[in-house]
Specification:
Elements (H helix, E strand, L loop, with lengths): L2 E6 L6 H13 L2 E7 L10 H11 L6 E6 L3 H8 L3 E6 L2 H18 L2 E6 L9 H9 L10 H20 L4
Parallel strand pairs: 1-2, 1-4, 2-3, 4-5
Helix pairs in contact: 3-4
Bound molecules: 4'-phosphopantetheine (PNS).
Amino acid sequence: MSRAVCPGTFDPVTHGHLDVVTRAARLFDEVVVAVGVNPSKNRLFSDDERIAMLERACADLANVRVIGFTGLLTDVCSEQDAQALIKGLRGPGDYEYEAQMAGMNARQTGVDTVFLPTDPRWSFVASSLVKEVAGLGGDVRGLVPDFVLEMLTARLAERAADRAADPAG
Ligand code: PNS
């Protein structure tokens, strides 16, 4: 059985991520979406929220499972008995960084990295930019699933209300 791990922070998940997961699910018998969870890191969405988000977004993909992970990705691949890591590449900038990680990961356990070129429709989409634009009142409709947009809008409104109540905090 071929199995691949598709890792990320997914804060929040975008259509770019989901396009890569969907295409990976056609190439492998099973895809494990591994959501990086690290309580010390400052995310817009909690670990549980991001895992639940991915589960909902991937609910129609029968051969996709979602897990949370901490520590080394290569350990996750060993635990999951996965032969490959999946990474989406938006362009040369992504490649430089990802190629270095692919080399390091291969050296750890021999796990190979499969790069999927991002669909041009999503080549400019990054979770960080989606948060920034939405936080400044811009339009990010169509870049994330509708239910994620609702969660994002609600969370940003909560954060804005917190800031208004405690400008120094
Ligand atoms: O969506 P992101 O933020 O680009 O995902 C980053 C992620 C989770 C893939 C990366 O932080 C990672 O690989 N974390 C696991 C730690 C690890 O294995 N580090 C060694 C990399 S060579």
